[in-house]
Amino acid sequence: MGRPRTNDDAVRERLVSCATEMLATRPRESVTVRAVAAAADASTTAVYSLFGGKDGLIRAVRDRAVAGLFQSLSAVQTSADPLDDLYALAAAYRRWGRGHTHLYTVLFGGVQSFGPGGQVGAADPVRPLIEAIDRARATSLLDGEPTPIALSIWATLHGLVTLELAGALDTATADTAFRSAIHATLRGWTTPAVFRTLRQTEPGP
Q1: pLDDT tens per residue across span 86-96
Q2: Of 1, 173, 182, 200, which sits with the fewest C-beta atoms within 10 Å of its C-beta?
């Protein structure tokens, strides 16, 4: 008689990894406990024992994606120029999306909503963005409320990354589009004096 399976960290990791891939590549309703368990070479009992069921497993995938994106954005060093920081945060977001395509797809495919308004949690990926926007507003670089500024940056960035991950943009085109679109979005929120300066000093495409 074989040894009974142990629902340990290795099983948990396989279940989360398989659920991530399946949620990113299949209709959500087709991602069942049985299907994930089979893909992970685990029992359905393991899903219930480790996660409490399908919803708990999906939360674990979501939590991994949120934590990974937050870690990537939090690693961006704060500089003396908040506008540079905002561009660096956008670049970090793009790098994380390109390096974790399945997690990115799951995170922004309906498992996690983006809400820069209201209270921002300590480990919310939007926190570094809001903090950089607040610094830029405090130094009269940006003119506007934090929520619409954050939404416009994210909408532009998310559109670019989504197109890139879908293969609609080759690397060179994506690089050029990223630079021009992020600079243009930031420039659109700047004060008049800063706007004129940026138009004169911004790098070309």
Answers
A1: 999 999 999 99
A2: 1
